[in-house]
Every structure is written in C-alpha cells, then in structure tokens.
C-alpha cells in the first residue's frame, strides 16, 4: 500500500483531535447559518473561505442541515438540533419528491434520516407524530429514487443519474441508503396496475450493475483494466439496453480513476454490507450473492485507493491526472495540497475513510481500520483542518469539478487548494462522529435500524 498506516493509532488517541474538530465545526455551522440567505441557493463550496452556491443540482442542502444534526449528536448542543430540524422541515420537502436527481440518499437520509435515528436512539424525545413525519419522508424518498429506473438488456436495471436514462453514476451507490431505509420501513414502489416493486430488489440490481459496469477487477475488460479502478459513469444504449462505454463527468478520463467516485463506492458498498446483515426475507439467495459481489467490489476499490493515495492517505483528485508525472513518486510522500501541478481531494479521503473503517469492522481486517484512522488523523490536523474563524469551511483542499474549472484558484497558485465543500465537511463530521461514538462506547453509527426489528 502507498498509504503508510499507523498500526499503533487507536480511536481513543484521536479523541482530542475529534473534539477539536467539533469545536471548530460549531463556529462554522453557525457562520453558514447566519450568512446563508433563503432563495440564494444551497451552499456548495467555498470561494475565498465563504460558502457559495452552484446551480447544477441542489444536492448539498441535506449536508448543510445534516451537519448541524451530527454536531448535536456529538456535543449535545441543542442549538444545532434546532438548526437541523428547522432546516429540514422548512427546506427539504422538495428534495423528498424530486424526480430529477439521483441524490436522495445524500439529501434526505442526511436530514430526515438523522432525525429519525436520533429519535430512535433516544437522543431526542420520542414524539409519535414527528417520528411518523420522518418515516413518511424517508418512505417517499426511497420510492421516488427507485422510480428513476433504466432497464437494461438482461432485464435488470439501474437508477440513472441526472444526466439522463443512459447514465449510471458510481456516486449513486451511496444514495442507495434511501431505498434501504424505505424498504426497512416496509415501503414499496407502486406502479401501473398496482404492481408492487421491491425497493430491496432495485437496490440490489443497481448495486450489481455498478459493480459490473463501473468497477474493474484486473480481468482484461479493456486495455486500461486495473483491479479496483472505477469509472465515474457507465453509458448505455437506452433503445437496446446494452452497455456502450465508460465515461467520466468529473474525472480526467473514462480510463482513469476519479478518486471521489471511487470513495463513494468504498463507502457505499461497505454500508450496504452492514445493512444486508440485518436484512432477510424471501430474497435470501439473492442476498447471499449480493454479499459475495459487494465484498469483492469493496475489497478491490479499497485496495486500489490505498495503493494510489499519498503516504498520509490523501488522494490526488484523479489517478491519471495529466501532470502527475511532474510530482515524481508522490505516493511515497505525504500529500502536498500546495503543489504546482495537480490538486488533492480531501473530500474523497473523508468519504473513503468511513468506508474503510466499516469495511475493517465487517471483515475483521485491521489493516483497513488502521488506514481509516491514519486518514482521519491527517484530515483532523492542519493543513487540512480549517482553524481560521474567517473561513467557513471545515476541511480544506477539497475539489469540486476540475474539468469544468469550477474551483477557485487563489492568486499565486496554479491549482485549486485552500477551499472546502459541503459534502467534504459533512463526511468529515460523519467520520468523526462514527469514531467518537466508538470511543465513548455508544451504539455503532448506522443509517438504518441496526436491530433489524422493522426488517
């Protein structure tokens, strides 16, 4: 592995850094709440340290209010519960019924889902009407997401991205949370002639096809096949349902690995393996196949990530970025976000670290846990931790859309650095909460009902 994991690092040793992270996060969440104006667009990423919007799709609003809920969970400050709850009630309804995006698991599980979890865990008082409200939102969200369906030649299908019915994004593997929760709550998607469509079935089919078409296993699929490499997008002929080619919207090319997409796969598949542990029923044979396929996929992607990251666990934004050769053997050294040639992506690291932690627990494979803790230590320290009160971001050196040139490049710099993203900050907080609850001996953090009583 390129990453130099610290096998002596423990969760408890990281607690001071985690607590410091939440201290800083409190200031930044309050700053965003004060400066964000209704109707001005969702905060997406920072420019000169201030959160700005980007009208592509409003896929980060759930992270805005979800971050406040994670802050409350960690520190118990009810100001943040109020921010998260009020924002969810006032701003998130349109996201529940949004038929035009693949982002339901991001927006709605981060808000309604966190509130449902906090009530289920007894961290907020139980209120039957409020609980039913959260559950209804989660049921509808899962069904709306599942309805965004493209059928392919073998009779299965996938949830297509906002690009259209031809497009299977690797990102969506983590948005399957919405289908998982809705299924666990006993919901189905109703179609023509009252046909009942299983949300679990659609979850599994989408995950199988992401594993098949967006992931590589070193078996000679094409000239650039490497075990664990991922393609951002798989493109299909919608008339025949046949696969045509890999593609990339946010990475450098279809034949290199956009590392945030790979991180979504690591985190998404690891979470789904945990979910399948509490999921049973008539689909047992299919679930057995799913566990085998998901495990193979997440092992491959995790190993590839670790082999291609810098020594401290931070990846470059793409493993085939055109100027990487100018950095020499960058994977043997700590990451340098201020280098002249290619940006790192701290948000990919935050997402991947959570997946690695869950994978290590699931497989009882400590090497993944050690890698996750090593990445967390890097992210929760300078130069990645944003300690300035003037900067609204929490984790620095995130990249949004390098090909489109959407990232701010400061004077005197040649590549983007020093800025934050709403998804990077949220996933750093989610990672920190996952580890903090472990250190405190609290229940293991899952997006679903881990006791399986509703399954």
Task: Explain the overall architecture.
With 455 residues, the chain is mostly helical. It has one domain: Glycosyltransferase (Alpha/alpha barrel). It is built from 15 helices and nine strands. The protein has a three-stranded antiparallel beta sheet, with no helix packed on it. Strand 6 and strand 7 form a beta hairpin. Helix 9 runs antiparallel to helix 10.
Short recap of the structure:
Helices cover 47% and strands 7% of the residues. It is mainly alpha-helical. The protein has a single domain, classed as Glycosyltransferase (Alpha/alpha barrel).
Read across the widest sheet, the strand sequence of neighbours is 5-8-9
> Can you tell me the CATH architecture?
Alpha/alpha barrel
Shape: globular
Low-confidence stretches: none
Number of strands: 9
Tally of alpha and pi helices: 15
Task: Quickly give the structural class.
Answer: mainly alpha
H-E order: HEEHHHHHHEEEHHEEHEEHHHHH
Determine the mean pLDDT.
Answer: 96
Query: How many strands, which pairing sense, and closed or not: the largest β-sheet?
Result: 3 strands, antiparallel
Tell me the number of structural domains: 1
Assess the beta-strand content as a share of residues: 5-15%
Helix-strand layout with pairing:
Blueprint: H1 11-35, E1 45-47, E2 50-52, H2 61-75, H3 78-91, H4 93-96, H5 104-107, H6 109-120, H7 128-146, E3 149-151, E4 157-159, E5 167-169, H8 172-175, H9 177-184, E6 189-190, E7 196-197, H10 199-213, E8 233-237, E9 242-247, H11 259-276, H12 284-308, H13 346-363, H14 366-379, H15 422-440
Antiparallel strand pairs: 1-2, 3-4, 5-8, 6-7, 8-9
Helix pairs in contact: 1-2, 1-15, 2-3, 2-6, 2-15, 6-7, 7-9, 9-10, 10-12, 11-12, 11-13, 12-13, 13-14, 13-15
């Amino acid at each position: 592995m390129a990453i130099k994991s610290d096998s002596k690092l423990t969760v408890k040793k990281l607690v001071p850094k985690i607590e410091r992270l939440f201290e800083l996060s409190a200031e930044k969440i309050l700053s965003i709440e004060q400066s964000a104006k209704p109707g001005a667009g969702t905060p997406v990423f920072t420019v000169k340290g201030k959160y700005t919007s980007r009208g592509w799709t409003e896929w980060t609003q759930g992270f805005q209010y979800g971050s406040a809920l994670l802050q409350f969970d960690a520190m118990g400050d009810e100001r943040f519960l109020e921010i998260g709850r009020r924002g969810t009630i006032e701003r998130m309804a349109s996201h529940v019924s949004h038929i035009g995006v693949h982002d339901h698991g991001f927006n709605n599980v981060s808000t309604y889902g966190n509130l449902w979890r906090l009530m289920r865990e007894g961290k907020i008082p139980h209120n039957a009407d409020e609980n039913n409200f959260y559950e209804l939102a989660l049921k509808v969200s899962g069904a709306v997401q599942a309805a965004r369906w493209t059928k392919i030649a073998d009779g299965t299908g996938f949830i297509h991205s906002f690009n259209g019915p031809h497009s299977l994004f690797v990102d969506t593997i983590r948005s399957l949370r919405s289908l998982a929760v809705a299924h666990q709550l006993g919901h189905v998607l109703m179609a023509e002639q009252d046909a009942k469509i299983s949300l679990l079935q659609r979850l599994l089919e989408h995950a199988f096809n992401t594993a098949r078409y967006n992931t590589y296993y070193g078996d000679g699929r094409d000239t650039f096949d490497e075990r664990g490499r991922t393609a951002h997008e798989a493109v299909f002929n919608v008339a025949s349902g046949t696969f045509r080619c890999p593609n990339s919207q946010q990475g450098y090319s279809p034949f290199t690995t956009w590392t945030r997409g790979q991180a979504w796969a690591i985190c998404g598949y690891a979470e789904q393996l945990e979910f399948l542990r509490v999921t049973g029923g008539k689909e047992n044979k299919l679930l057995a196949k799913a566990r085998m396929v998901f495990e193979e996929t997440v092992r491959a992607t995790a190993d590839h990530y670790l082999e291609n990251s810098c020594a401290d666990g931070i990846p470059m934004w793409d493993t085939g970025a055109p100027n990487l050769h100018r950095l020499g053997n960058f994977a043997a050294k700590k990451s340098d976000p201020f280098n002249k040639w290619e940006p790192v992506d701290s948000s990919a690291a935050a997402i991947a670290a959570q997946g690695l932690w869950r994978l290590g627990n699931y497989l009882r494979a400590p090497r993944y846990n050690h890698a996750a803790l090593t990445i967390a230590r890097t992210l929760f320290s300078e130069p990645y931790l944003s300690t300035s009160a003037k900067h609204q971001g929490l984790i620095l050196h995130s990249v949004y859309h390098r090909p489109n040139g959407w990232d701010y490049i400061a004077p005197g710099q040649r590549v983007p650095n020093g800025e934050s993203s709403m998804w990077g900050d949220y996933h750093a907080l989610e990672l920190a909460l996952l580890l903090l609850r472990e250190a405190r001996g609290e229940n293991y953090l899952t997006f679903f009902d881990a006791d399986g009583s509703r399954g």
